[in-house]
Amino acid sequence: MMGGMDGGRRIFERDVIKPRNLRATLLRFGHYFRHFWYGLVLALVLVVVSTWTQVTTPEIVGQAFDCYLPTQNFAPQGEQSDTCWYTDDDANAIAARIAADDTIPAEEKAAAETNAKLAGLAQMTFVLLGLYGLGAVLQGAAFIAMSWTGQNVLRLMRRDLFRHMQRLSLSYYAENEVGNLMSRITSDTDTIQQVFSFALLSVISGFLLIGWIMVKMLQTNVPYALLSLAVVPFMLLATFYFSGQARVAFRKSREQMGSVNAGLQESIAGVREVQAFNREEESIDAFRRRNAANRDANVRAATFTSALTPVLEAFGYIAIGVVVVFGGLSVMRNEPFLGTAVISLGMVITFLQYVQRFNQPIQQIAILWTNVQSAIAGGERIFGLLDTPAAIVDRPDAKEMPPVRGNIEFSGVHAEYKAGEPVLRGVDFKADAGQMVAIVGPTGAGKTTIINLIPRFYDVTGGAVKIDGVDVREFTLASLRAQIGIVLQDTFLFSDTVMNNIRYGRLDATDEEVIAAAKLVSADSFIEKLPEGFQTILGERGSGLSQGQRQLIAIARVALMKPQILILDEATSSVDTRTERLIQKAFEKLLEGRTSFVIAHRLSTIRNANQVLMIRDGQIIERGTHKELLAQQGEYHKLYMSQFRYQEEPEQSSNGVVPTLEPASGD
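Request: output the structure for the sequence above.
Response:
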């Protein structure tokens, strides 16, 4: 009977997610399997031959009882050839001659018959051992072939999935959680991997074995076969009942465990409040209740899981009892069984083994079939992601962008992330090559949307963004973005060396060029103090470095690109004033001769901008230089005054000149 309670528990813990479109999903899987069809065919052939050995061995054992055990009368080869497959022809021929010779004593005849039986039994024993060994080897080889095929299929699926995810537009990631996307590559592919490596072949082998055994039993003796299989429906009902109840219980257990973890996290995170308000006992009591509920759910789940195997074994023993009792009565009475031939002892032994082998895959199929369903459903999710179109793609006639001068124009630009919810409304402005354009405004005004339209992270819904007079949509994405350098507020560094993090801006750059870019932005001074200098491996997201150091590496990365267009989005908002001044010096070197767009909350960083765009509600409400906008005493002036105090010089005040504004101390 089937064991593996722990393995069954792990599978029961999975939610059974049924596929919605089985045929379409299987065809998609077939598209990947066709690349490795030979591995799949080999695995199936090996399974068929292995199953044949499992079906054949009980029949041979039965023949051994009928043909060669002392309880049966010996018969010459010619009389037993229809029932006994494996005999020793020489031994049988000798025994036949002795039996026909009346002058030979009875003792010698009996000895000759015994020797012939032993020779045939020995031959059958070697055949059985060979079949057992062959079956084990073939079964192992089948799983190896299937695992090799499945792993290669998964490799292609992961490759296509990752490639597609890299090409999806930012709008997709804004609407979908990263954790959910990660589960497509990890959880869903893990479920598919288990099926391809083990479950699928086990299910196929189980169905094949059950069907083959049923055919063999019915071919041998129909009434005896039907009687022997009478308990199978009850076994199926028990299997699906207990497995279904176990899954429900494990689902409840996971929910309770989630409640335990959530309560634990909240209590630990809020331990100051718990102690401040004297709520320790209430917190402990709430955790005790959640913990008890989780215990009860796990006990219930374990009960159903543990009950399945002994219940199936009990039905298996009943089936064995039916075979022995009814078959044994026919053997002892030497009477036909329900109008058929007399059941021999060998047939009883054969049916006993058939019943044992028939019962074995039932639990296996019931458990693993749900896993197969979940894998197909996981495939649907993966294929659904693969079928998700990227919002931003190259036009069929897109061309490579030539080296640009850097003239940028927004002409009647409208943009929205959700239909009917505009973010930009008719934005118009021009930036000449080499100019610095500062974009300011309250949160949600549309500042980041403007800079996202230049490298086509999003597309306009109306109007056009032009570079050197050409709509950016006429260029390929790769050639467009290759000429735009971006430094964001939240700098992302990879778990790699400092050298390779800077080289990410241009992968073909030499070490000397990387070091020169770091020196240009004054990042070399702190890099050389790291344990291994430029070869220091950074932690995740640059952990171990300050925010300012991470920003300088990001600026060096862009400097290495030598782009003609620069975008700086809140690049200094998370650093202190001293670090800001250091970064500003790096920017001065980087911005020289390049068209740049700067978003900054600290307005002191944009005093030298050629033009400042004040954005509110997706529209430009003010534009001009820093001094011009201050003189207008409008929204920009209010925003500036909210950050800085001003000192009015007497001679300026008397002439009506705009007061000189100085940064507030500590800003």
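The chain has three domains: 5-386, 399-483+565-576+592-634, 493-562.
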